[in-house]
Structure formats: C-alpha cells, structure tokens
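Example record used in the benchmark description.
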Amino acid sequence: MSYLHTGFQKAVVFILLFFIVIPADAGRNDLHMRTFKKAFAAAGDKNYEEAIALYSEILEQNPYHVDALTQLGICYVHTNQELDSALTLFHKAMSIIPATDRFSPFGVDLQQTIARTYHLNQQPRELCRCSKVFVIQWTMSS
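Model output (structure tokens):
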C-alpha cells in the first residue's frame, strides 16, 4: 500500500514539474527573448537609449545573459559613452562562455570587439596586451 502511495506522490511531483514549473521557466525565457528582440531592433534603428534600457532590464533578471552583456556593451561603444563599462561587460561575457568557444566566430568577434574598445578608449597598452594574449591562445589552440 505504501508503495502505491509513494508512486502516486512521485507522479504528482512529476506532473507539477512538467506542467507548472517548466512552463513558468520557459515563459521567463520567452520574456527575455521578446525583450532581447525589442532591444536588438531598437539598436538597429540607432535608438540606443531604448536598447540600453531593455538590455539592462534583461541583465537585472539574468546577470549572466551573454548576448545581453555583449549587446549592451556594443550600444555603449556605438554611443561612445561608458567605454569602461562596455569593457567590463565584454570581459564578463568572455568569462562566461566556455573556453572551447573562445575561438568560435562569436568568441573571436568578442575578442576583436574588446580590442577595438581599448583602441577607442585610448588604452594602447591594454590593446596590445589583449591582442598578444589572443594570438598566443589562438596558436596554442591550433
């Protein structure tokens, strides 16, 4: 009798997880996706103020959202403001992506964006340092 009761409890927990918890999380991801698409469109229209607000909203809810980190940094670069903040965002995104993805197209673009941002921020030493690190890592991975 207790085996049936335990089996029933497991079934109820499974049903709750499958129909309530998982869709709630999926809804949160859908919300981030809708907000991300709005932010991306705003940035595409050069409405950086709105894009910055929307990307920041995503990061308030999920501070490890790599795409929002990257795109918010790019908005800062396009407006030529808060370049130090952009660099912080880019480095955070770089620390989140797996080491195996550092030389994927996204990882390479991100590293190039970091180098360009150092250049815009008139930090030639950091530009040289990150370029040197990139070349060393790239040759070691080949």
